[in-house]
């Protein structure tokens, strides 16, 4: 089956053509946090025309467990979740609508980041808030980057020859969005992103977790509206806010090299908070077989992975600088250590294609 996969991230839109489970072509457009324009949508959606299905990544699927065939009713429901993932969901809706217009007779399938985390244990998913808020089960932790986690779980187990039923992994997704997830036997057991993709470590432009008391104080003291606060937390915080750059790690590192103190501190905070979250989610595992670094930062910046891992020795994590500096999917720990460390390319495209194939087979066979 030929599947056009479309992956709107917070700093990019990626398209890939996957034929019978193998990607045969890729394209990417950098958007750097701005709303994806009509031209990029048209280019991405029309990138390959001879296809049997189009699969679109939606970070938020609510409590949906499985990918779903897109129709107007589903798109309306997914659009209503846009306020909970404003850097992603509106772009996915626009891309899916454009795909439906272009490929009239071709099925469009929505695949959800949240689906991987649907069975998070209650202790990890539940917020310590008044029970009248949480009783309906909507104000809870959803988790994101699920397509990436799903791929990592399969690929790491295969590369390390682990028993998939018990493998204990931490997936550290380092893109413009950043999250860490503990995976036990292929299931997510804790994850750093929560009700929205704002929670967790500091990200390119997102704050990650901040004392809610500080936010309450600023909203009151500066008479800030919820929309103003959302703009600050989603678009003007993280590496961007701390360093005064765009938040792209390439720019932050250039500023660090130039000796700019705000950038130096920003990178230290970024690494500190990441290690703290990794330590936090790892506590949901009985022991650790492997930690996997994935996403644009892990793929392109091995120096940062090495520096990050250097502060994770308490978990038994040790990396070999020569292996770290390599390319492609690889083990970066020395031989004989008890916890393997790996860098894997984020292959959400392959998960999107699998989701589309599964959905269409199911639709055909009833
Ligand atoms: N050569 C590079 N060196 C350091 N960081 C890079 C490099 N190329 C890309 N990145 C980082 O990867 C991030 C994008 O990650 P990616 O996972 O592709 O994006 P998205 O979150 O949009 O899906 C950028 O914000 C940038 O910080
Ligand atoms: C969920 C999320 O933040 O995704 P991305 O890193 O692709 O922006
Ligand atoms: Mg991404």
From TrEMBL:
Keyword NADP appears in the UniProt entry: no
Reactions the enzyme catalyzes: acetate + ATP = acetyl phosphate + ADP
Binding site for substrate: 57
Cofactor note: Mg(2+). Can also accept Mn(2+).
Positions bound to ATP: 14, 173-177, 248-250
The protein's Enzyme Commission number: 2.7.2.1
Active site annotation, chain numbering: 113 (proton donor/acceptor)
UniProt similarity note: Belongs to the acetokinase family.
Protein's recorded name: Acetate kinase
Organism per entry: Amycolatopsis samaneae
């Amino acid at each position: 089956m030929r599947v056009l996969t479309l992956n709107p991230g917070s700093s990019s839109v990626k398209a890939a053509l996957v034929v019978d489970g193998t990607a045969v072509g890729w394209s990417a457009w950098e958007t750097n946090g701005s709303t994806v324009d009509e031209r990029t949508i048209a280019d991405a959606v029309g990138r390959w025309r001879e296809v049997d299905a189009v699969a679109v990544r939606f970070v938020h699927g609510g409590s949906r467990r499985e990918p779903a065939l897109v129709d107007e009713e589903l798109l309306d429901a997914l659009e209503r979740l846009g306020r909970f993932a404003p850097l992603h969901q509106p772009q996915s809706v626009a891309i899916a609508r454009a795909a439906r217009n272009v490929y009239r007779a071709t099925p469009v399938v929505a695949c959800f980041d949240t689906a991987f985390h649907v069975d998070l244990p209650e202790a990890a998913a539940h917020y310590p808030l008044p029970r009248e808020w949480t009783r309906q089960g909507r104000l809870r932790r959803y988790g994101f980057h699920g397509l990436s986690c799903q791929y990592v779980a399969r690929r790491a187990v295969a590369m390390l020859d682990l028993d998939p039923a018990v493998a204990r992994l931490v997936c550290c997704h380092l893109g413009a969005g950043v999250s860490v997830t503990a995976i036990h036997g292929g299931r997510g057991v804790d994850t750093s992103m929560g009700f929205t993709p704002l929670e967790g470590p500091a990200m390119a432009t997102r704050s990650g977790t901040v004392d809610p008391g500080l936010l309450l104080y600023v909203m009151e003291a500066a008479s800030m509206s919820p929309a103003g606060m959302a703009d600050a937390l989603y678009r003007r915080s993280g590496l961007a806010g701390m360093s005064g750059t765009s938040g792209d790690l390439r720019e932050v590192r250039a500023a660090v090299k130039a000796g700019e103190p705000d950038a130096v501190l920003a990178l230290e905070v970024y690494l500190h908070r990441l290690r703290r979250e990794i330590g936090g989610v790892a506590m949901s595992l009985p022991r650790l077989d492997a930690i996997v670094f994935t996403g644009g930062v892990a793929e392109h910046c091995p120096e940062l992975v090495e520096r990050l891992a250097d502060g994770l020795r308490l978990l038994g994590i040790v990396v070999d600088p020569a292996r770290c500096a390599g390319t492609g999917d690889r083990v970066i720990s020395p031989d004989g250590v008890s916890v393997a460390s790996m860098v894997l390319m984020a292959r959400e495209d392959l998960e999107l294609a699998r989701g589309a194939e599964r959905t269409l087979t199911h639709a055909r066979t009833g």
